[in-house]
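Researcher: Go.
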Amino acid sequence: AADGLQESANIPSRTIAALELSWKNGKAPIKQGDVLVIDEAGMIGTRQMARVTASIQEIGAKLVLVGDPEQLQPIEAGTPFRDIVDRNGATRLTEIHRQTQGWQRDASRQFAEGKTARALETYRQRDAVHEHAKQDDAIEALSERYAIDALADPSKTSRIALAHKRQDVHALNQAIRTALRHETVPQDDVLLQTATGKRAFGPEDRIV
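Model: Structure:
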């Protein structure tokens, strides 16, 4: 995530753990007058927030917190970012840039406001939500559509299939790989041991 932020924002980035380790080892990556921007600040627990804030005050730098308290929860105890926003207010970004079409922006706002059913209906009206009575049917349909899209535009790497359970993730991966291999020249797979068992990997496979 830090690498992605550095690439997109052109700001030298690192994890908070790495920053605190630098301070512990006597290094000074942040100097007086610098600005420290913490992305996904909602994930920070109370103790870590207190340590970072104290260090920034001592250095004489500025701390900017960016995040959504409704999106990601703190890894450790406490909700300091949410408390800071509730007590002091915050500048809010309300204009949506990622979605380019008006109805998509409306649906994104509905999701953000907790109006999930209305947002899903917005997508359903445009044939962007598909339901299946059986899980096997859903996996088969999803894998076929994924393969068709992947073969139509191999350069696009933004597609992703998500599932709640690991066993469903594995089933989806297998179905998608099988569907893709039916349309391309078969490649030799390599069987590797992972945290969730042995898995086959081949050329051009992406790991997320």
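Model: The helical segments are 2-9, 16-24, 46-59, 80-88, 102-112, 116-124, 135-152, 166-183.
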